[in-house]
Amino acid sequence: MGEKQALICYAVRLSSKAKFGISMSTQRKAISLISGGLDSMLSTRVIMDQGIHVEGINIFTGFCVEGHTHAIRKKDKKKPKRNQALWVAEQLGIKLHIIDVIEEYKEVLLHPGHGYGQNMNPCLDCKGFMVRKAYEWMQEQGFDFIITGEVVGQRPMSQRRDTLPVIQRESGAGDLLLRPLSALNLPETRPEREGWVRRDELYDFSGRSRKPQIALAAKFGFEEYSQPAGGCCFLTDKSYSDKLVDMWAHRSSRDYELDDIMLLKVGRHLRPRPHFKLIVAREEGETRFLEGYRKQFVHLQSKSHNGPLVLIDGVIDESDRLLAARISARFGQGRDAAEVEMEITDLDGRSQPLTVKPLRANEIPQDWYV
Amino acid sequence: MSEQHLDARRLLCPLPVIRVQNTVATLAAGDILQVVCSDPGALHDVPAWCRVHGHRVLAAEQRGDEVRIRIEVVAQEPPA
Question: Of 3.40.50.300, 3.40.50.2300, 1.20.1270.50, 3.30.110.40, which CATH number belongs to B3-72?
């Protein structure tokens, strides 16, 4: 099915160029922000159908949902372990350039000029930033304009009638930013005025309904596509945002490294004391992932029973070690045993046995869970 | 022609793909890139990236917890 879709796209590109007599000298090039979702897939195809050469760009902030979580968690093994943006690019038959903006993105997250959404999601600043990165790429590579899958009224922060112009302005892209799915609801852009694309073949989608997109997908023969219900960013997720806020609240600085934000995606997080928290693997895939951090964290493992790997984030004393071991024992198969033999390993690699009584469920206050 | 090795272990997708992309950008047509990853998703994503950019995947296999992919860099043509 994938090959079929790609072949159709390739044939469409050839026939569009022939139909409109596009020659080497007039070939226009667009860069499309590809998230991996349906809207950017559709908007790209709409512009390809007009004979425009389109390449994709995918911006990796470190908070993207796709890929990482599927790779980490074994329970998600039925989901395809694939990068959705790459998959979309392959279906469309276009190149995809993935840009690592982890470092630059810190400024967007830490100081969003337009503030946060419902959680720690700086959606409006984020979209402006992503379009700016696409605009920079466009200029460097000699492309002509940018397209996105944005739809007026679809998202409460970044896709409103009054905020779409903000993205154009603050990204620097101005009227070189075209939203093919909603173009008829918006002022003409330069690609339309110059005749690079035909406005009457663009769309007037608006609002939160997905029906027009689903109908257009059917028209294009897209039988498989991603429809993320809660967006494609961890920052829109309440549980993740709570962990991020907790991390910042217990550090002297809000700065972060990639490992910090990766670890917030994994395991149960419990903070029994202000100066340390535990990261408890929930299943085999998470255990395997956390094993990669054993040299960076003091960690606990049950020796007498099966149990999860537990990382300790913070500096702890002897009484903290005992408490951490009792909590960790609670999450292993020895939870109901009178005693569990644990092993604690320090940063220098030296391990020490600890025999503890597991905490009972009612001895773990709910507010320890981050 | 040269052969380069890229260690992308402990990186989760799309970071192995980004490392491959950035390394390939420094290589010439005909050069070989051998990449080793620990994210099983790389077994799908790295060859997918190669396909959309027209590079040749000579081998892709999972050995235990590691994914090994061998890529031949192919010259990029400008848009027609």
Answer: 3.30.110.40
**Whether A144 contacts chain B with CB within 8 A:** no
pLDDT in tens, A54-95: 999 999 999 987 655 555 666 555 666 688 999 999 999 999
Residue of B nearest to A63 (CA): B14
What interface predicted TM-score (ipTM) does this complex get?
0.96
Domain with A285 in it: 266-368
pTM above 0.95, yes or no: no
Check whether residue A230 and residue A277 sit in a common domain: no
Work out the burial of residue A22: count CB atoms within 10 Å of its CB; fewer than 13 is exposed, 13-18 middle, 19 or more buried: middle
Contact by Cβ (8 Å): B30, A85 = no
| Domain residue ranges of chain B, discontinuous segments joined by + | 3-72
Q: Give me the sheet containing A340-345, strands edge to edge.
A: A268-273, A276-280, A310-314, A298-302, A340-345, A351-356
Contacts A31 to B, Cβ<8 Å:
none
List per-block mean pLDDT (blocks of 10 residues) for chain B, which spans 80 residues: 94 93 97 94 94 98 94 87
Q: How far apart are CA A172 and CA A183, in angstroms?
A: 19
Q: Which residues of A are less than 8 Å from B45 in CB distance?
A: 67, 82-83, 86
For residues A69 and A146, membership in a common domain is answered with: yes
Asked if A53 has any chain B CB less than 8 Å from its own CB, the reply is: yes
Nearest residue, CB atoms, A81 vs list B18, B41, B53: B41
Q: Are residues A67 and A183 in the same domain?
A: yes
